[in-house]
Amino acid sequence: MANAEPLFEWLKSEAPGIMGLKRVKWNFEKWLVGRDGKVKGRWASVTKPESLESAILDELKKGGTKAGL
Which of 39, 41, 43, 64 has a CB 3.0–4.6 Å from the CB of 15, allowing a cystine? Predict the structure, then answer.
């Protein structure tokens, strides 16, 4: 999409959706970005946020710098 924010263009290119499509199917898609700046996962809008807890905690346990935290 020509009017998409650069952040979303980057997220879509780093973690394409189903069948490699680089589009957001619906609002509330979720991405997890690690402290190293790399996309660690992408989830569909129907994914409940609470189901991402273990993925988030796993990334937090990896440590690294705590910029801004």
Answer: 39
The tens digit of pLDDT for each residue in 4-63 reads 788 888 888 888 776 666 667 667 889 999 999 999 999 988 999 999 999 999 999 987
61: which 2 tokens?
A: 């346990």
* This prediction's pTM: 0.72
Q: Which long-range contacts (CB under 8 A, 24 or more apart) does 29-38 make?
A: 32/56, 32/59, 34/59, 34/62, 34/64, 35/59, 35/62, 35/63, 35/64, 35/65, 35/66, 35/67, 36/64, 38/14
Is there a contact between 17 and 9 (Cβ–Cβ < 8 Å)?
Answer: no
**End-to-end alpha-carbon separation of the chain, Å?**
33
Please state, in angstroms and rounded to a whole number, the distance separating the CA atoms of residues 53 and 38. 18
